[in-house]
Amino acid sequence: MAGRRLLTPGRITEVKYPGAIPMPMLRGEFPDAGEQSPEELLTAYGTVLAETVETVGVEEIVAETGLDQATVTAFADGDIADRTLDEAVAVLATGPNRPDADALQAEAQDILLMGMTTAVMDVESLASGIDDELEPKEIQQKIEGRYPVTLAEYALLHSHIEGEKR
Q1: Within 10 A of 93 (CB to CB), how many other CB atoms are there?
Q2: CB neighbours of 83 closer than 8 A, spacing ≥ 6?
Q3: Which of 23, 71, 88, 139 has the fewest CB atoms in 10 Å of its CB?
Q4: How big is the chain by its Cα radius of gyration, in Å?
Q5: Do 35 and 45 contact (CB within 8 A), yes or no?
Q6: Which residues pair with 84 in a beta bridge?
Q7: Nearest-5° Cα angle at 22, 110 to 84
Q8: Is 150 helix (H, G, I), strand (E, B) or coil?
């Protein structure tokens, strides 16, 4: 596992590709998230994930992440709605110029939390804004990472929060 990025307290992460500049998962890659429907945003996520699988390769991602081949193949095929954010960041972290999965996970959660702050939105108003597809307590647990969030749910939340920031 030489060269893999590991997040260890008090230690600088190892760089997979020396000289590479880490890129965020969503921030900057989806600047128009609030202008897209959740379905369009999910498709955009799928494109980025499929490109990562194409670049790195299914076998390499399976070896690096511990995800099974069927899961990685689902990302390659764009079948991602029921895949989790944890799985997605594991796949993205294998790509060139990407930070590790922990950093990507933290950033994905931060995008939602900071977006809610900017939009002056609490979980009750967010639940109402997405027509109560998720309960307020469930939203809070998913955004904070205490409960798994699917990419379809993440797209729904991301799209709505960014749309309310305008």
Answers
A1: 24
A2: 71, 74, 75, 150, 151
A3: 23
A4: 16
A5: no
A6: 150
A7: 50
A8: strand
pTM given for the model: 0.82
Tokens of 151: 């990419």
pLDDT digits (tens, 9 = 90+) for 15-66: 444 444 444 445 667 778 788 899 999 999 999 999 999 999 999 999 999 9
What's the DSSP call for residue 83? S
How far apart CA 61 and CA 45 sit, in angstroms, is 17
At 17, list the tokens: 């590709």
Q: Which residue has the tokens 């070896």?
A: 63
For 90-148, what is each residue's pLDDT tens digit? 999 999 888 899 999 999 999 999 999 999 999 999 999 999 999 999 999 999 999 99
Give phi and psi for 84, each to the nearest 5.
-90, 160
Give the integer Cα–Cα distance in Å for 158 and 47: 17
Residue type, 24: P
Tokens of 149: 């969030």
Q: Burial, 69: exposed, middle or buried (Cβ in 10 Å; 0-12, 13-18, 19+)?
A: exposed
Give the integer Cα–Cα distance in Å for 35 and 100.
29
Contact, 143 vs 113, CB < 8 A?
Answer: yes
